[in-house]
Specification:
The chain is built from 16 helices and 8 strands. By secondary structure, the protein is an alpha/beta fold. Helix 7 runs antiparallel to helix 8 (216-226).
């Protein structure tokens, strides 16, 4: 069915590359099925697939079961979906067409959201092809509102209704658009853009807490003036970083990795390269002062030269994250907490880049895509990993705007002194 859809322009070029994909979405993830799909699969009569279905289909029989999460495919010893053939193509789709796929399989990597009757369609960067299309555009992510063929089998991730809501500002696209404009403002380094976004989110949270919704438009106008004020922007450049907090992020990454049970071989390659690049491989006792020296050396010699030319990759990552998650979702009432989560993810991602750049003595765009794509698949899709990082910040009182700013802040190149 055709609907009016707001979508990033990169979606116009997307199609699944199937067996050519270097990180198949049918390997390593559990495929959840709703009740309707499960019953449909149980009725299939096919010489080869019926055997695989009878062996691979499993009912969810605990308290988490529901009509939407009714069953799942049990992966084989290589963590492959049993419906995959030797060319990594789905046997169900090959024999019966796309309509036979479950909503999860039909939708991914697409992210379909809805406000009233209007749709927003983007995609997860855990898909390598989407990562290339979304991240490698030096002009940044742009958006179109147009007629789009929305598959009736696609799952809607978030659905917001304004019916009965007294204040439509809670669903204002203008606020979300301004937040994206901040991140795409190249007068500032990406870390300073995120700090500016935090200042705006902090004030917006105060308005939501007071329920003074009529002040929202005035706040947007105020910060639109600030982002065009050279003196104000210069003041952001004078915010101090906290290398010690960034080092704590590295150490928590290592601890969270052990707790989370991440098994993605592609991500683990990146994680291990990060560890080696920070000279932490095989070391039980970590000397923070030495780690700071190694981190700064990698940062200035390998990370900065790449990022000075390719900062748009981080910009595109953040913009895509914001759009797919409907950030800031003011209806939730927790927009500063959502900002803290975004900032934490960004800081974690930067640590990966700094460590891996040291291991490989530089970075390429191919490496950048692999790092971000595998990171999103292993971390953004892993609630345990993210919650561990958020708990660390909360336990140590690091969720204030000042702490988040110091976590995000890049050190000025003229202030770096390494041996």
């Amino acid at each position: 069915m055709k609907e009016i859809v707001l979508t990033p322009t990169y979606m116009n070029s997307f199609s699944c590359i199937g067996s050519d994909c270097e990180d198949s979405c049918c390997i390593g993830w559990q495929v959840t099925l709703n009740k309707k799909t499960y019953q449909k699969y149980k009725k299939i009569k096919h010489a080869e697939l019926s055997v695989k279905l009878n062996k691979g289909l499993k009912r969810i029989k605990n308290q988490t079961a529901s009509d939407s999460k009714y069953a799942y495919f049990s992966m084989d010893s290589e963590k492959r979906c049993p419906m995959l053939n030797e060319k990594n193509l789905c046997g169900l789709q090959l024999n019966f067409g796309e309509d036979m796929l479950s909503p999860v399989c039909t939708t991914y990597p697409r992210m379909l959201n809805k406000i009233d009757q209007e749709y927003e369609l983007s995609a997860k960067l855990s898909c390598p092809e989407i990562a290339r299309l979304a991240l490698l555009n030096p002009d940044g992510i742009d958006f179109d509102k147009k007629e789009y063929e929305v598959n009736k089998n696609w799952s809607t991730m978030m659905s917001l209704k304004t019916d009965g809501v007294n204040n439509g500002n809670l669903f204002s696209w203008e606020v979300r658009e301004f937040a994206i404009d901040i991140v795409q403002n190249r007068k500032l380094k990406i870390s300073d853009r995120l700090i500016f976004l935090g200042l705006f989110m902090n004030r917006l949270q105060e308005i939501l807490d007071r329920k003074n919704y009529q002040e929202i438009n005035r706040l947007v106008n105020e910060y639109q003036q600030k982002i065009n004020n050279p003196a104000y922007l210069h003041s952001l450049e004078n915010i101090n970083d906290s290398l010690s907090l960034q080092i704590e992020t590295i150490l928590e990454l290592i601890a969270a990795r052990k707790r989370s049970g991440v098994t993605s071989s592609r991500y683990l390659e990146c994680f291990n390269d990060m560890i080696r690049g920070l000279d932490l491989d095989g070391k039980e006792e970590i000397l923070k002062s030495k780690l700071e020296v190694t981190y700064l050396y990698n940062y200035t010699n390998y990370y900065l030269p790449f990022m000075n030319e390719h900062e748009y990759i981080f910009e595109n990552y953040v913009v895509n994250y914001m759009f797919e998650s409907m950030f800031p979702n003011m209806a939730s009432g927790k927009i500063f907490k959502d900002y803290t989560k975004l900032s934490t993810i960004f800081a974690m991602l930067k640590v990966h880049f700094v460590g891996i750049s040291g291991y490989s003595k530089g970075l390429s765009t191919d490496q950048a895509i692999k790092i971000i794509q595998s990171f999103v698949r292993a971390i953004e899709h892993n609630g345990t990993y993210l919650s561990g990082m958020m708990e660390l910040l909360e336990e140590n009182g690091f969720t204030t705007l000042a702490h988040i700013a110091s976590l995000l802040k890049d050190r000025k190149s003229e202030e770096i002194h390494v041996q």
